[in-house]
Predict the structure.
Amino acid sequence: MLTRRRVLETMAAIFAAGRIPRSPIDSSIAESPSAASPGAAAYPHLFAPLKFRQLSVKNRVFRSNIAGRFDNYDGSGNQARINWEMKFARGGVGAIISSFVPVALRGRIMPNYATIHLDAYVPFWRRLIEQVHGESDCKYIIQLSHGGRQRDIRGVEFEKGLSSTDQSDPLHGFECERMTIDQIKEVVDAFAKGAARARTAGADGVELHGANGYLITQFLSSAINDRKDEYGGELKNRARFVLDIVRAIRAEVGPDFHLQMKISAIEYNDAILGREPKGNTLEDAVQVCQWLEAAGVDAIHVSSGSFFPHPRNPAGDLPLDELRKTYAALISSGTSTKRNYLLFSGRLTGDAFKRRWERARGEYKNIEGLNLPDAHRIKQAVKIPVLCTGGFQTATVIEQALADQYCDAVTIARPLIANNDLVKIFESGAAAAPKPCTYCNRCLVNAVANPLGCYELKRFNSYAEMMDQVMSVFRPTPFT
């Protein structure tokens, strides 16, 4: 088994060299339908189809779960979200994993995110998926989600979130109430009904968001879950909630509908607040993934961190100038958000927080491929495909990760915001975009209050050009 340091050193060397050693190509890769393109010749593993148990995807690049506040306050979707998803379908990704899609209104992280908690919303999702499918056989996977205590901007309907605990989120102070057994059963059923609606809408599968501090993480985590009943304590009990969800989904949609799970392989719960416990280890995640596979999950999507945003997710810069402007929108959402705003706003305190954030990233030099060691360990322990997220944007790095079987596919968010056509660039034979993502994180900092897009001004000729790109999500408009 490769060590974490060895994997990172290998990937760093590949990144620096800009090339890869060739690995043997099996016949299924050689027969890829994209084999005529320069990119398929240069990166045969990247452009090989990926076959899951019930789903086939044309290449190994997935758009990871990301979107902005594009929808209506009540959770109904609109044209802006369709426009957003079509950017990536046209850009050549094999599949799109939707943004955070709440299965219950109380589970949303902020208003203006499309939900799937009502049958009445199925026609919107059907229309979106039909349009995505019309672009070169791009697949669409709906991410079924529940924020629990972790939210950005609470809606007017619910004062507190639901969680495995009644302890507020320590970073922002988002308040919550400990779920009763009846509430747990209701949420489990909401996930199952959400999966059924996704299937009715024509989705190619669903993903459970069990990473980055949301409700499933709040049950899985040894740092967060302080229950004394059958849903708390030892790992098997903490995993009971997500395994109940998997079984409920299979009972609702049957065995032939694709179901994958996103998990934080290592939680690093103490990354910012050193007094907090570390949370789940990699070996904890390996065990959970084995249980998930046995319960009927078709793939694992590897991430890290027990809260969001986290120094390791999304790894990169902490743009304090943008954070000061947009974080004000969160001030009334948690008991610690005003404290945080004042901390970011002070020159000395802001700089100190930024240094601490950067130190907490951990042991690596390049952001790209940050989670590969964890994905590699999980892949060794399960027989189902493993997806890995973590700043991927260089074809040679992705090709090597696939060739050496660190993972079976990569998922990309920020670099695809910067270059929606990144996969088309790879198809041309290029290893990287002319203007790659800088990992400045201005896109995500702006997403709380502004339309999502690339806000890295140095990548554009002018501010007007940058804003034209940001506002393009509203073209075409819902009205003609």
Q: What stands out?
A: The radius of gyration is 21 Å.
